[in-house]
Amino acid sequence: MNIKFCFKLGKSATETHAMLKEVYGEQALSRSRTFKWYGCLQDGRESVEDDTHTGKPISVCMPETIEKVRKLVTADWRRTIGMLASELNIDKEVVRQILTQDLGKRKVCSRFVPHCLSDDQKQVRMDTCGELIDNANPAFLDSIVTGDESWCYQHNPETKRQNTEWRSLSSPKQKKNLISKVKVMLIAFFDSERLIHHEFVPPGTTVTGQFYAKVLARLREYLSIIPSTVEFGRDPTKVMSNHFLSPLHFCA
């Protein structure tokens, strides 16, 4: 009401705000709010009361909507709340309420994968591996070649002792040995005794199935000439390749 009175008297927004500060002190309307009301009055607004609101929106948790959600979930149990909300064109919170409250659903994982083994589980694995080793052919482990990949820097900095040099007071300042910003992929293969083969992926090369087939061909050729092949009687055509982190039924 005070702002409208000053507006009718022809006062500016700055003058009105100064007068409000003088009368009400810290409880006066802020400068931004004062200028906002001045803009509304200049646009022709006469009422100084708050605008009426439509209130809380009508809930869409109608029986028809609940039934639609039920049918979609029954057709595909893996549908997410976002997918259901997009298909039915309703809010995500409404979908969550229908699923949890109206339908009594809860999200569960269909497959449990133990990441942290208990002490008993570790002991069972050790016992099983021990039995396999005791009952298996002595040359069984020698026929397994494991492979893995790892990213590494093109060059690593030397140790502090290796990086020391004899210099005089007039010698130029030694450059700091930094870690390379470029990484390359290392592919390594090893058996029960040692590392038997490794190679670096050329920069810019994509590791595809065709590329890896050539790597395995070079590995097979190398297995036929290394001393351990002759010593253990390993047939390079019958070597079992167990790639690191691959499930056992994928090994070949």
TrEMBL record:
Gene3D superfamilies associated with the record: 1.10.10.1450, Ribonuclease H-like superfamily/Ribonuclease H (3.30.420.10)
Origin superkingdom: Eukaryota
Name of the protein this chain belongs to: Mos1 transposase HTH domain-containing protein
One Pfam family cited in the UniProt record for this chain: HTH_48
One GO MF term attached to the UniProt entry: nucleic acid binding
PANTHER family given in the database record: MARINER MOS1 TRANSPOSASE-LIKE PROTEIN
Organism this protein belongs to: Stegodyphus mimosarum
Mos1 transposase HTH domain span: 5-38
